[in-house]
Design brief:
By secondary structure, the chain is α+β, with helices and mostly antiparallel strands. The protein is 35% helix and 35% strand. The chain contains 4 helices and 4 strands. The protein has a 4-stranded antiparallel beta sheet with strand order 2-3-1-4, with helices on one face. It is elongated. The termini are far apart.
Amino acid sequence: MALYEHIYLARQDVTAQQVETLTDQLKTLIAANGGSVSKVEGWGLKSLAFRIKKNRKAYFTLLNIDAPAAAIAELERQLGLNEDVIRFITLRVDEHEAGPSAMLRKREESDRDERGGRGPRPDRGDRDRPRRPRDDAQAGAY
């Protein structure tokens, strides 16, 4: 069996509970076709870079899948019929990433920054040095 990373975007007007229910249905579908889901990450409601089917936001969910190609074909067919899913992508990978994905790591880092976890500011060097005067060519350019 092959390894896949699958991400789908659900409409902004569905609830988080409905997104979890949809994820459970997808996991059941994959298991019924001889595959397994090793990791599920809900990235939450995020703003989109551009409108997709009149939606400005969407719920993002990542699934790490180990399944045959027929299971992936059925998964994509079902998602194409579902009105709550606005986009999806499935990528075949050599191996699944261990630990949290880059999106979750990014969220954890931003949470630390909001709590003031950056630490002290780095040294900015000697601030008392006099500024170098500009020559006439540089002065006229500005």
